[in-house]
Each structure stands twice: as structure tokens, then as C-alpha cells.
Amino acid sequence: MSGISGQRGAEPQVAVRSVILASPDAGLRQRLSESLTMLRWTVGEATGGADAMAQVERLRPEALIVDNWLPDLEAGEFTGHMREMYPAMDLLRMDGSLAGSGARSPRRNELLHALREAQDGGPALPAAAAEPVREVEEPVYAPVSVTEQALPEMIGQCASMRELARMIRLVAPRSATVLIEGETGTGKEVVAKAVHRLSGRSGKPFAVLNCAAIPEALLEAELFGHTRGAFTGAVQSRTGRIEAANGGTLFLDEIGEMPLALQAKMLRFLECGELQRVGDNETMRVDVRVIAATHQPLEQRAGERLFRLDLYHRLAVFPLEVPALRERMSDLGLLVDFFLERMGREMPRKRISAGALAKLGGYRWPGNVRELMHVLERASILVEDRPEIGVDEIRFGAHMAA
Ligand SMILES: Nc1ncnc2c1ncn2[C@@H]1O[C@H](COP(=O)(O)OP(=O)(O)OP(=O)(O)O)[C@@H](O)[C@H]1O
């Protein structure tokens, strides 16, 4: 849950002021959001400290309102850190108390007024918000950010991820071939699985073949299958991945690595839906939807004659681009929450310090989401039995320098 929602009823001459509401309580966020929107504030919502921090960094709002309990960061430490980082920003607690020092600005008075009205059930709030704004003592953490996802398996609420989710929903029910482009670790396989899950083929197989992981000589037999004795070592006949995916979806990862000769055979299969096992004269017909992925710019490779242009066009009927993590750092908090939550199923759930989160935010992430996941896994081991991951436990790269 992130991003700024548009303000209702704003008059053009009124300056737009923005506020971020950080709370794991979706109901509370919504009530306050409605109230503040009526007072002509532009409101962004964050489910936890990490999410809030990423949004503040990106949107530089005039104010931040923080719940007394956050699922990932200690609220006091978090507000202290935010006060230090953004001294000009107004910082309030959900119960109306001031968080940190700082002079009372007119806009802060207005926020306090809105919060007080929320407590009193005054006119600025809809009836549902009339209950007193309560202290959140020990709420059960429901990862709202995760359950409210457009696609539950694909974490990301920034504009490009929302658009990607929309495209996935559009193309999934069709049989069109999909080409997924994006850097390593961005989640291309996650996207392919989402397309399959949302298609009419979801009850049928989802077969995967990584074209870069299989020696060139074996790739053809792996894809198309082979008969007994088709080549040295083929002691028995074998079903290929295309045939194994019949009725379902075949995900061809790293398609850019497919040898040119095999590309021609693949193109024939895509054109007519027929295949021949290696060493077999018989042709069989299968119903398979192909999704291909590449981290290489395939069109450019086609221009360099390293990839067949006709196959490129055949694959790219519906191209999808998965953004690099560094292009969507506003999702960092959500992703951190998601992975800490998931790791928390096997060991006590760890929190992350504001400093550690800032360190994650300053990194370039060449390995994208996969690298983030590994850095957090590593950190949760290094932190031993302490509850909070600190700056020292965040280590990048293979040599683990702090
Ligand atoms: N948006 C996301 N939400 C949740 N998990 C994600 C997301 N993107 C990637 N991941 C996780 O990151 C890891 C890497 O994702 P995936 O294998 O889909 O990347 P990829 O782009 O296919 O990588 P490669 O090009 O190296 O094959 C996986 O464990 C996946 O679950």
C-alpha cells in the first residue's frame, strides 16, 4: 500500500500539501485519509516504517503521521530518525501527540485539528471515523501491503509495477506468446507464473526450461524429446519439455541463449503447433502457450544477427518489461517487509533498524530483488538472536564487507 491519492474537492488556488500516514491498520489509515483529503491534503499511505521511509524519501511530504506501533521498526526510534533526516517535516503521532521537537507550524495545527476531530467525531470525519483514535498496543500484524497487492505473488505498488500487473491481467486469458524482458533477478519468472495462474491453463502444467543452463547439444532433445537411439547415449525415448507442457504453459528462460539452428525449429513449432521428437519422423500436435524471458536486449541481438528477427517478432507479440529494483526504490520498504515476514515463518520475525534500511536504500542492486532477498537472509543470520537487523548486518557482494 503506497502512493499518494488525489485530493478530492481541492480548489486550484489552494496549495497542495502532502502527508504520509504510517500505520499497519488499514481502517485507521482510510478514515484519517478521508478526513485529511477533505481538508485538502494529498495523502499517501504506508503500512510500516520501511514503507513510510521509502515514500518520504521519494515524495518529500510536508508532514508524516506515525502510528504508535509499527510492524517493522520501533516507532520511537523511527520518528527520531525521521526528525533528524527531515527537520522541516511536521511529525505527529496518530493519537495527536507531537513526535520529536520542532516549532508548531500552521499546517501542523491543521493536522492536529483534523486528528482531534477524528477523536471527537467532528464534522471533518465521516461517521465511521468517530471512534476515538486509539493507542495501538499490540495489534496482530496483518501484512496489509501484501494482501492488498494487485497480484499477490508480485510485490510492488509503484506506477510501473501497477501497469505491469494490469498488462498481465490483460494478456493472461489469451493464448498470445509473451516476451518478458528485464535484468537478472527482477522477477521475470514471477511474472511468467502469474500469467499462467491467471490463464485458463492454470490447472495444467507450467514447464520451465532455462536455455542458458543446458549444453547446446542437449537443448534440442530437452525441448522436443527424442526417440530411443536418436543419438549416442539415448538409451530410451524421452518426452521433451514442450510435450510435457501440453495443455499448459512453457516458460523459456534466457531465450537469447538459444542456438540459431534451434531457433528455426522453435519458430516452426510456434507457427504450426506441431513438433517432432529428435530421431522421429512422426509429427505430433500439442497445445502449449509459450512465455519467453530474456535479460538481453533481444531486438538489438536480432540486429546483430545473433537472434532470428522473425522469431523475435513471433515471441514479442505481447512484450512485458520488468523494471530494475533501482528504478522502483519506492517499493523497497514493501519488499523488505515481505521478505522479513516470509523469513519470520521459520524463525522469530526480525525487525530492521532505520539506519540499515537507509543503507539498503543507498545501494544500486545489480542483482535486483533476488539480491535483496539474499542480503536480508544473510543479515537475519548475522544478527543471531537479536530482534533487530542493524547497519553492520547489511552486507553486499560476495565478500560480505560490512
Ligand atoms: N516483485 C516480486 N515480489 C516478490 N518476490 C519477487 C519479486 N520479484 C522477484 N522476486 C523473487 O526474487 C527471486 C528472483 O526472481 P525471478 O527468478 O523471477 O527473477 P528473474 O528475473 O527470472 O531472474 P533471472 O533472469 O536471473 O532468471 C525469486 O525468489 C522471486 O520469488
TrEMBL record:
Give all residue intervals belonging to the Sigma-54 factor interaction domain.
Answer: 154-381
Pfam families referenced in this protein's UniProt entry, alphabetically: AAA_lid_14 (PF25601), Sigma54_activat (PF00158)
SMART domains to which the protein is assigned, alphabetical: AAA
Q: What PROSITE patterns would the database entry show?
A: SIGMA54_INTERACT_1, SIGMA54_INTERACT_2, SIGMA54_INTERACT_3, SIGMA54_INTERACT_4
Source organism superkingdom:
Bacteria
In its keyword annotation, does this UniProt entry include Isomerase?
A: no
| MF GO annotations | ATP binding; DNA binding
Q: Does the keyword ATP-binding apply?
A: yes
Q: Where are the transmembrane segments?
A: none
InterPro entries assigned: AAA+_ATPase, AAA_lid_NorR, CheY-like_superfamily, P-loop_NTPase, Sigma_54_int, Sigma_54_int_dom_ATP-bd_1, Sigma_54_int_dom_ATP-bd_2, Sigma_54_int_dom_CS
Q: Which UniProt keywords apply?
A: ATP-binding, DNA-binding, Nucleotide-binding, Transcription, Transcription regulation
Which portions of this protein are annotated as coiled-coil regions? none
Give GO terms for biological process: regulation of DNA-templated transcription
Could you identify this protein by its name? DNA-binding transcriptional response regulator, NtrC family, contains REC, AAA-type ATPase, and a Fis-type DNA-binding domains
Q: Which organism is it from?
A: Granulicella rosea
